[in-house]
Amino acid sequence: MKLSLFLLATLALGANAANYLCWCTVDGYYSEYYTKLSCWRKYKKYLKYSNANSRDECWRKPGDTLTDWTEKCTSTGASGGSCDEYPDDK
Questions:
Q1: Distance (Å, rounded) from C-alpha 40 to C-alpha 36?
Q2: Computed from CA positions of residues 42, 43, 45, 47, in that sequence, does the dihedral angle turn out positive or negative?
Q3: pLDDT, tens digit, for every residue of 49-58?
Q4: 68 class by beta-carbon count within 10 Å (0-12 exposed, 13-18 middle, 19+ buried)
Q5: Per mean pLDDT, which range of 35-39, 50-54, 85-89 is the poorest?
Q6: Which range is the signal sequence, renumbered to this chain (predicted)?
Q7: Which of 3, 26, 58, 69 could join 31 in a cystine, given CB atoms 3.0 to 4.6 angstroms apart?
Q8: Taking residues 53-70, what's their average pLDDT?
């Protein structure tokens, strides 16, 4: 019983520690300009990560929520924001 509780707690902590890449959207489409602006205003920097779509995305901090990110995007002029989980092994 103790072992199963330990494993459950470990999984829960692992899920909370997942990395996320976020970006701003305008009318549902990715916006490089607003993503960089939002990253700068939220974190005072932006991080460039090139994936298959060659997008510049911003790391979401572990304590941030998607709502936090979307609010930051809309405050810069974008209409929304999105995040994708980014596996640690990449």
A1: 6
A2: negative
A3: 555 455 677 8
A4: middle
A5: 50-54
A6: 1-17
A7: 26
A8: 78
85's tokens: 């989980």
Q: Residue with structure tokens 């490089």? A: 32
What are the tokens at 38?
A: 């939002």
> What does the alpha-carbon distance between residue 48 and residue 18 come to, in Å, rounded to a whole number?
18
Domains present along the chain, CATH in parentheses: 18-86 (3.30.70.440)
Tell me the C-alpha distance between 54 and 34, whole Å.
16
The residue among 61, 7, 88 whose CA lies nearest residue 69 is 61
Task: Give the position of tokens 């990110």.
Answer: 69
* Per-residue tokens: 6: 């330990």
